Amino acid sequence: MNDSIARDLWTVLEPLHAVTYFSPECLEAHKAVGLKGFWMGYFGSRAAPLGAVPPGVVEAVFFGFHPDRVRRAVPDAWRFASPERILAVRGEAAARALRRIVPGIEETAAEAAPALRRVVEAADAAGRPLFAANRDLDIPDDPVEAFWQAATALREHRGDGHVAVLTSEGLDGLTANVLAAAVGAVTRDQMLLSRGWTEKQWDAAAAALAERGLVDGGAATEAGRTLKTRIEGRTDRLAAPPYRVLDDPKALYDRLVPAAGAVADAGEMPFPNPIGLPRVGRDG
C-alpha cells in the first residue's frame, strides 16, 4: 500500500467530518445546549471528547489558533454546557446533516463504517490526544452517527500526527499557517480571520520564515515548497499504517468519494477553506 492513500482518504473523510463546523444542524445543536457563538461552539464541540480541560490543553492540541481565540471560548464553554452534554448532541446533529446532504448515506455508512472502525482500532494512540479521546467514546447505536464518529477519530489521528511533524520541522502554529498560505494551500486573509492572528504577528512570522529562506515576498521559495512537500509526505507516512489492516484501502476511498462530493456540492463548506482541504477529485 502506498502511503499516499492516507492523503486520498483524508480528502474524503474530512468533508464528512466537517459538517460539524458548517451545517445548520450542527450550529443549531451547539446553540441549543448553550454554547455562545461560532467559536465557542467550535472549540467546545471539538474539545469535548477531552473532557472539561483548561485552555492551555486546547491551545496545545488545536495548534494553529491564536491563544487569545482559544481563551475567549475555553473554559467558559464548560460553564454553559458540560462536555457530556455537548457529546450527546454533536454526533446526532452531524448524522442529521449527512442524512439531509448525502443521498444513500445509510447504505454508505453500513458498508464503510465496519472498515473505518477496523482502522480506528488498529491505530496507535501514542502522542495523539485528540484521536485517543475520540476513539474511546462509546460507539453510537445510530449507524450514520457511528460512521461520522469513526471518520472524526481518523481525521484527528492524521491531525495529531501533522502537528508532530510541524513541530519537528521547527514550525509553530502561526508559522505553519504562513507557510501553508505561501504555497497556496490556504489564503492569508482566511487564516487571519479564522485563526485569530493579527497582521503584525503574521508579518513577523513571515519575516522569520524569510530568514530561513522559506518565503520571499509572501510566496514560498523552492526551499519552502520542498519543506511543505516533506511535511505532507511525513504526515502521510504517520497516518498510513492503520489503513494496512484493510485488504483494499482504495476501494474504501472509491466508496466514500460520492458522499464527500455531495458534502462539497451542498455549498455549506467553503472552497477554498482554512482547513486546506481540496474539493475531492477537482482541486489539487
From TrEMBL:
InterPro entries to which the protein is assigned, alphabetical: HTH_67
Domain of life the protein comes from: Bacteria
One Pfam family per UniProt: HTH_67
Protein name stated in the entry: SalK
Annotated source species: Actinomadura napierensis
